[in-house]
Amino acid sequence: MSQSQAKEPKYDLTKISARVDRVKVSGLLRTHNDYVMRAADGLFKAANFQELMMEAMSARSYLHELGIFKDVSVHIDISRGADATPGQGYEVTLSGKEYSRVMGSAGTEIGQNEGSLRTELTIPNLFGRGESISLQGTYSSTRANDLQLKFWKPFFHTRFRENRPEISLSIFRQTDRFDISSFQTTNLGYVADFSVHTMLGLDLTHSLQYENSIRELNLLNNKSAPFGIREHCGPKLASLLRYSVVYDNRDGTVFPTRGILLKSTNEYCGLGGNVAYVSSTVHGEVNVPLIPGIVAQFCGRVGIMKETKNTTQLPISNLFYCGGPLTLRGFKFGGAGPVMEGTPIGAQTFWCTGAHIWAPLPFAGVFKSFANNFRLHFFYNFGNSNNFSTENMRSAFGMGLALKLAERARIELNYCIPVKRQNTDKISNGFQFGIGYEFV
Amino acid sequence: MQSQLLNQMHTADKLSEEPWPEDATLYQPFDAEQILLPENASCLAVKAYLKMCGLPFNIRCCGNAENMSPGGRMTKLPFLRAGAFIFAEFEPIVNFIEQKDMAIGSWQDPDEKADMRTYVSLAENIFTMAELYISFKNERVYKEVTAPRNGIVFPWPLSQIQNYTKRRNALRLLKVYQWNDLDIKHVIEKVSKCCETLEYKLKESPTTPFFYGDQPCELDAIAFGHLFSILTTTLPNMALAHTVQKYKHLVDFCVFIDDKYFQSKQIKISH
Fold this sequence. Notes:
By secondary structure, chain A is mainly beta. Chain A has helices at residues 2-7, 33-36, 41-45, 49-65, 227-230, 364-367; strands spanning 19-26, 69-78, 89-98, 103-110, 115-123, 132-140, 146-154, 166-178, 183-200, 202-219, 234-248, 259-269, 277-289, 295-306, 339-340, 343-344, 349-359, 374-385, 394-405, 409-420, 430-436.
């Protein structure tokens, strides 16, 4: 149909006037009626048939976003009956299929040097207005088991629909291993999150979080750890506010071809508890299409952490560890920073940048859409810790293959050649494997 | 196995070569507000031993001393940092100093040494267990002294969790040594038996103030550490102190050691 339309606009749908008489949303079993009410808002405003079609589509995607339906289909029919608008009255039926009461999933994840099993159990649409609870567990081969219980409630059905407000509360237990510095932290606590979208000139996504957690630091190698790290051992109570804001107009999350991403995360820790610091991280990404299929990408990240007047000791686990496949390729994770007795101890400031040329696989056409999950890239990374000048900076270049994973994550296998390094750095010359959401 | 032995020998060689480090530091919890009875006893024993050896050391008080410790059999405290080496608890620290040939008691012949070691291990086990028992099993002592002191370095909800974990670990340790279902009477009995044995040993050389001959040894340090701590710590339940007080020779011994080695203790500790 679209083809014939493009060739000769035989039927100009904008000229066919239309009026929606009735909108019906069917398939609501557990969901309250008022939760889907706003799906009809746009439809009633449609004046011609093309608008009606567009609005029906957006109503469908709106219903999807509400997080109650597995699948939604749209039926448009002429309205009948006594009340029908003669000649141009239509009836729109949005029939959805609700999620089942309990949803489960299991999968495997591969991290830096461990394999892990992830299971998730979700109860969607708990009270009929999109409230959901999920329990997520990750069991890894290194016995660093993570657990998260999350409750969230979207407010897309209110008059702030465009702002997409959402609140969530999670209880979590999370273990982070810093193998290179031979310690690990176990965090146990809760996070309350409020996120909202604003459209004042720029489309920004804000998220304000309050976290209260017990962070316990343990040594992984009790004999050889430097004393400076040993001094951080033991549990601490952190109470912090985190504000992050994201601007994203890219055309894709994993392999974008154009657009800008800017993300800033700011933490103020020290509202009670005995951990105090302020930290700020900014991540940026610019994508420029060169010739069809070839994209130039420039990334950068800067982090600063400062003491507050309550600080007795900056928490070593929140310092910045520069190096590794997500920041400076060609270096081991955390291997491009200050050291104590040969062991990396994290930096108070760091910066790193990366320049990429992304290209599709050769003969990509042969494999059709499957090849869309792969890209080749050439990269050059620069960066440094505790120093904002370009003197003594670290750099590496190389090329590699990247794989898209579920529209969110990226897996990279790169051949890296470190160019500039410092004597204490831990490099990884040759093949390096990386998995993550946010790369430089 | 062989490589492990070689390794040990190698470490021993390295240890004996190096002189006593200037900056040797003993890490312990805060004396006034935080430290618990068993930990205090163990710290005092180590301090007494180091002083008897005439080795200089600094004392550093840390709220997280127990977490920093490389671990041990009982209290994990105190731990000694000497150069690159870290040792926790009385026995490993004593072994370390002996490897350096700076230890007291090198004049003892092997038989006497083995005999003395038996007393050391008896005193350490019985007293530590009794101290743990009174600190964590006695409800009043736990509520009024142990819990508030243990939790003092942590902010509120964390202090409760830490108290719970600490008590659970202590009770587990008591269970391992089969002290968990004793009642206080049995504990007192065990302590008085141990005191009796020690007093008997002390009386074997009535002319000298020490357990063995006219020089101090490990036993003097460990006995002093525990007895003095028990005698001087005020608890809602003073059963242990009352038991020890019955042994006049041991009390005199404590006073003597305190005078001889800890004259300036009050001044030194207040830093």
